[in-house]
């Protein structure tokens, strides 16, 4: 008997699970590391280094405006990188978004200040912050798609939570570095940064980000395209203009996805930026904000906050596992109700909390809720869209939500924070955001059983498809 001929075809390449986890995690870690570094600098040094001709409160608000620029740039990045992510593939687009984000962050660390080049300094800061936002606009969605489109059956929730872990890890890396810098360059008696930190110390975290970017590029260059996207290419279902197709066929998904993320964003920025500002204002004092706060030193409060962030990290994959077992909606709806109730406790709990045990308990509860609401989003948003517009659609929902829920949150909190220390209105704002998100989640369909290989809707016109 003659031997059967050897097969001339080989199984398509797939990404090892460990590589998927690392590649999806590293980009979002850099994303949130960059956010925390910028947010810290926006409070500590940018007002005096880039906006010195304004009064202290106006300088702080101007600094927050540059902080907000990135959020308004994110939808631009969503459209740009979403277009190429849905047209040419996830891998190349992920590399490009990481490069844009990393280069902008590194250059911020090299910027001259107002004292050197005058008004050009804040202009350059704004341009680079906007570029940062464009890169960020394409980063999260690509990382989430990398995780979910390569996930084993029944594990999309937990795999989708891996990019979300970048938030707590980025926080720990960024603020851990600032604690080290503060120890080496101690602040003055009034809590203000010393001369060395003002001159060059603040630049270190921005420059260090380049190391993380190089690691991310190394991992991502070794990826291959997901099976589901290759299926779209092979079937000739690639959309010519993904943005147009999203608004024509998936606009409801964009709306519910956007409003479904609003409370997550508000909670996230309140529990990090606002609590840090409130916790370190008062008897120790900040000349930038006239309101009364808890009066901890920056180092003391960061230590308490980092304890809470550990619980954020623990709850994020737990939420992914719960979403796999019980469904996305059954995990997120009770969590959102919890967020709404938590917002009503701000004044009665956090404002009266002068002891570190009460403060850290408040932070643990809030950041645990953050992990529970943030974890399932890495799977839910991609699952709302067909493969041929998944990058664009999920990126739009995620990043438009960042404008509604996050870009103005620090400024709104500053306005709602009363001079006598009353923060009830700040918490009420979070509660209102949670109600908005709850309505969206009640309207969204359950996506746990969605087949991601269902590449495109059957009614897609041939004119909107291109050959692979």
From TrEMBL:
Tell me where it resides.
Cell membrane
Q: Does the keyword Nucleotide-binding apply?
A: no
Organism domain of life: Bacteria
Q: Which SUPFAM superfamilies match?
A: MFS general substrate transporter
Keyword annotations from UniProtKB, A to Z: Cell membrane, Membrane, Transmembrane, Transmembrane helix, Transport
Q: Which spans are transmembrane here?
A: 64-84, 96-125, 165-188, 200-221, 253-271, 301-320, 332-351, 357-375, 396-417, 423-444
Q: Which PROSITE patterns does the UniProt record give?
A: MFS, SUGAR_TRANSPORT_1
Q: Which residues form the Major facilitator superfamily (MFS) profile domain?
A: 20-448
Which Gene3D superfamilies does this UniProt record tie to the protein?
Answer: MFS general substrate transporter like domains
Q: Name one Pfam family in it.
A: MFS_1
Annotated membrane topology: Multi-pass membrane protein
Protein name, as recorded: MFS transporter
Which species is this record about?
Answer: Curtobacterium herbarum
Where is the organism placed in the taxonomic lineage, from the top?
Answer: Bacteria, Bacillati, Actinomycetota, Actinomycetes, Micrococcales
């Amino acid at each position: 008997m003659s031997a059967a001929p050897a097969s001339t075809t080989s199984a398509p390449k797939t990404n090892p699970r460990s590589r998927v986890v690392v590649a999806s995690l590293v980009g979002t870690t850099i994303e949130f590391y960059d956010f925390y570094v910028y947010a810290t600098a926006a409070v500590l040094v940018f007002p005096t280094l880039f906006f010195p001709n304004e009064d202290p409160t106006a300088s702080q608000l101007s600094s927050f405006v540059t902080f907000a620029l990135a959020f308004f740039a994110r939808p631009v990045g969503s459209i740009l990188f979403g277009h190429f992510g849905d047209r040419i593939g996830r891998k190349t687009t992920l590399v490009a978004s990481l490069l844009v984000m990393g280069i902008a962050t590194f250059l911020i660390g090299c910027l001259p200040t107002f004292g050197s080049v005058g008004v050009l300094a804040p202009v350059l800061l704004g341009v680079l912050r906007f570029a940062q936002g464009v890169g960020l606009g394409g980063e999260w969605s690509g990382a989430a798609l990398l995780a979910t489109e390569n996930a084993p059956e029944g594990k999309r929730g937990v795999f989708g939570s891996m990019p979300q872990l970048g938030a707590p890890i980025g926080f720990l890396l960024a603020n851990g570095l600032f604690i080290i810098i503060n120890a080496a360059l101690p602040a003055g008696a009034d809590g203000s940064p010393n001369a060395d930190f003002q001159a060059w110390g603040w630049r270190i975290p921005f420059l260090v980000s380049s190391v993380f970017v190089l690691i991310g590029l190394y991992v991502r260059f070794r990826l291959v395209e997901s099976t589901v996207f290759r299926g779209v290419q092979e079937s000739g279902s690639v959309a010519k203009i993904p943005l147009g197709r999203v608004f024509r066929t998936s606009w409801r998904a964009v709306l519910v996805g956007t409003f479904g993320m609003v409370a997550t964003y508000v909670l996230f920025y309140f529990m990090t930026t606002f609590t840090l500002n409130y916790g370190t204002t008062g008897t120790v004092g900040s000349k930038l904000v006239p309101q009364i706060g808890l009066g901890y030193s920056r180092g003391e409060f960061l230590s308490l906050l980092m304890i809470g962030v550990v619980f954020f990290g623990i709850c994020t994959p737990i939420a992914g596992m719960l979403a796999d077992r019980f469904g996305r909606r059954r995990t997120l709806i009770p969590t959102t109700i919890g967020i709404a109730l938590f917002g009503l406790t701000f004044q009665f709990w956090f404002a009266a909390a002068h002891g570190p045990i009460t403060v850290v308990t408040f932070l643990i509860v809030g950041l645990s809720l953050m992990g529970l609401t943030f974890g399932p989003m890495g799977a839910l948003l991609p699952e709302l869209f067909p493969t041929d517009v998944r990058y664009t659609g999920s990126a739009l929902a995620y990043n438009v939500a960042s404008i509604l829920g996050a870009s103005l949150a620090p400024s709104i909190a500053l306005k709602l924070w009363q001079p006598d220390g009353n923060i009830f209105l700040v918490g009420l704002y979070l509660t209102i955001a949670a109600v908005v998100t709850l309505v969206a989640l009640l309207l969204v369909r359950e996506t746990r059983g969605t087949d991601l290989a269902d590449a495109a809707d059957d009614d897609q016109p041939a004119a909107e498809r291109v050959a692979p």
